[in-house]
Amino acid sequence: xxxxxxxxxxxxxxxxxxxxxxxxxxxxxxxxxxxxxxxxxxxxxxxxxxxxxxxxxxxxxxxxxxxxxxxxxxxxxxxxxxxxxxxxxxxxxxxxxxxxxxxxxxxxxxxxxxxxxxxxxxxxxxxxxxxxxxxxxxxxxxxxxxxxxxxxxxxxxxxxxxxxxxxxxxxxxxxxxxxxxxxxxxxxxxxxxxxxxxxxxxxxxxxxxxxxxxxxxxxxxxxxxxxxxxxxxxxxxxxxxxxxxxxxxxxxxxxxxxxxxxxxxxxxxxxxxxxxxxxxxxxxxxxxxxxxxxxxxxxxxxxxxxxxx
Length: 309
Description:
Strand content: 5-15%
Radius of gyration: 19 Å
Shape: globular
Number of strands: 10
Number of helices: 7
Structural class: alpha/beta
Distance between the termini: 43 Å
């Protein structure tokens, strides 16, 4: 696993892979705490996929070819209804400070109000594309129907220009380096509220009538972030969308909507890389001794005001 220490100052956008790698090793020597003082965490899955934690250092996770060959990344984010005003500006500005700084990135902003998308100053080789989408009357449908939109965007455009796709919820803020260590063929995120709990407390969908039904699993994955190569993300989005539509035909709705279907997909099709809760942390969680760096945090939630719009 990798050891990535936050630098006290903002990195320039032209910070090279080599500079970052040397800085990372220097920071590890200067700032790392003794291993015996650190909590023990699982660093590989049973199927040998790495789980990315701050305290682990493995140079093999830093594949220099990503930068040498300018591996490009498409970031999709949905900002529909009041979520646009509440979160999008902070999300985009913080992404420009921390997300894949060594690589070309294009933000795909899906919104029902294109005219209200903020005009963010972007670094070289970073772009934004705003795409208009329908605003569904129920927030649950907004959440679930994004899978169809992501698949269509990959098919019509993204697959022709980008090697990787990352899909994010908008109500988040980047706080630390979110770099090439996160790239992989199929990338999932451990949910901050469940990674320490026993499996019988995971909130899988337990309704046998739903396509998302699970009796057991391995981890509980958070749908706030998922990604990978464009073809793998499209397979995930297609599978989840078809399952969602089957449920609709049968008048069934999964417990946690698209997240329930995403958990079922990753149970059947194991991800090749897992992001630890450092990559999407909820600061309201009290016990955080094993979270040394927060790379992305949950923004304050106001569901009553934002979803009733």
